[in-house]
């Protein structure tokens, strides 16, 4: 059989040079790629398999298959154990393509004879290695039924290019995941897992314009744990950290999902309350204050109770958010001055 591959090879090379759209799933990208591979090489089935652990592979996981009607859940991916097919695994890890024109007798694929090839009438296979950082990471399997097939060098080159496209997509996917994680970390407070100050300033900006458009009030509550220094001084900094984490959880439980709680720094926290008047925000702050007071924090050797002073302010929609932050900070100052464990409202 002779297939002119120059055009498809061109298309694959162009495709491989394009910006990858990572918004779709990795599996759907692979499926598109191998469906095209199946048509191009006129085979009956194409599948992609990845090693579980590139540095110490124990099994191959089938992550995409042209036989599947729908995306499979990762938990349902079929697997091949390396120890059951030692010759095949050895062949893959050399990185050299397996052009098994007669898969039943080829020493690299004969291990599959009884439990896979014969029952599924697979006669011929072409397997090309997927690399990651120069190390074999998986394999793309082209399988045919019917007459045996002598694989042409252009067909092998094409199949290798499909595997290289998988490699590239894998790499881009990892970079993208890493980037997502970094973005998440940049906006997250490492200790409590809450959003941080950077996130607050960013989201306040967006919330202000949204509330201007909707002509709705936006309020802010600042929470400052009372005498927190004493906690550190009495029990140590580590217990202080536990108290901060427990405090954050306690507040989260007392808030609606749309109210975002952020850690401003130290023992200071902020809640932005969308579509909420100052009176509403005062109620929320009072609820938070009571929840914190009632929450007994259990540590290895101590039961710790803390209280919190809260300031409440209406966010001035015509001013930068830093202005409202100052207002609410003054309100907290008032609450502290009046004896702590209370809510004070900004008078502007
Ligand atoms: N454990 C721990 N302590 C922190 C962290 N960030 C800030 N602190 C401590 O929080 C304490 C804040 O103390 P102050 O600003 O004096 O306030 P306070 O003791 O809470 O007193 P009032 O606010 O006046 O009620 C300081 O001792 C800081 O070292 C943190 O991430 N972990």
UniProtKB/TrEMBL annotation:
InterPro entries listed in its UniProt record: Diguanylate_Cyclase, GAF, GAF-like_dom_sf, GGDEF_dom, Nucleotide_cyclase, Rev_trsase/Diguanyl_cyclase
One example GO MF annotation: diguanylate cyclase activity
EC number(s) given by UniProt: 2.7.7.65
Cofactor(s) recorded in Swiss-Prot or TrEMBL: Mg(2+)
Enzyme class: transferase
Highest taxon in the source lineage: Bacteria
Reactions that this protein is recorded to catalyse: 2 GTP = 3',3'-c-di-GMP + 2 diphosphate
Domain GGDEF, chain residue ranges per copy: 216-348
Protein's UniProt name: diguanylate cyclase
Organism per entry: Pseudoalteromonas amylolytica
Organism ancestry: Bacteria, Pseudomonadati, Pseudomonadota, Gammaproteobacteria, Alteromonadales
């Amino acid at each position: 059989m002779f297939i002119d591959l120059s055009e498809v090879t061109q298309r694959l090379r162009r495709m491989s040079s394009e910006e990858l759209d990572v918004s779709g799933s990795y599996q759907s990208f692979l499926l598109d790629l191998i469906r095209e591979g199946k048509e191009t090489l006129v085979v009956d089935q194409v599948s992609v398999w990845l090693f579980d652990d590139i540095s110490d592979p124990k099994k191959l996981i089938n992550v995409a298959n042209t036989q599947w009607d729908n995306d499979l859940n990762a938990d349902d991916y079929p697997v091949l154990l390396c120890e059951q097919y030692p010759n095949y695994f050895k062949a893959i890890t050399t990185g050299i393509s397996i052009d098994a024109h007669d898969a039943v007798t080829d020493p690299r694929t004969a291990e599959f004879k009884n439990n896979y090839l014969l029952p599924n009438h697979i006669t011929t296979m072409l397997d090309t290695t997927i690399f990651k950082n120069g190390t074999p990471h998986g394999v793309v399997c082209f399988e045919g039924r019917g007459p045996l097939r002598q694989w042409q060098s252009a067909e092998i080159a094409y199949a290798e290019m499909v595997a290289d496209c998988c490699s590239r997509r894998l790499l881009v996917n990892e970079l993208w995941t890493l980037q997502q994680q970094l973005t998440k970390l940049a906006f997250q407070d490492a200790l409590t897992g809450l959003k941080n100050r950077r996130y607050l300033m960013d989201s306040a900006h967006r919330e202000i314009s949204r509330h201007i458009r909707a002509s709705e009030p936006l309020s802010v509550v600042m929470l400052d744990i009372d005498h927190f220094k004493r906690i550190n001084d009495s029990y140590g900094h580590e217990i202080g950290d536990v108290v901060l984490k427990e405090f954050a959880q306690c507040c989260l439980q007392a808030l609606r999902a749309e109210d975002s709680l952020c850690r401003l720094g130290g023992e200071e926290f902020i809640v932005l309350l969308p579509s909420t008047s100052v009176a509403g925000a005062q109620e929320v702050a009072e609820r938070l204050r009571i929840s914190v007071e009632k929450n007994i924090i259990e540590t290895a050797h101590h039961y710790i109770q803390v209280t919190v002073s809260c300031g409440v302010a209406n966010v001035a929609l015509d001013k930068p958010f830093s202005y409202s932050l100052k207002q609410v900070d003054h309100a907290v100052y008032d609450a502290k001055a009046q004896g702590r464990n209370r809510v004070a409202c900004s008078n502007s």
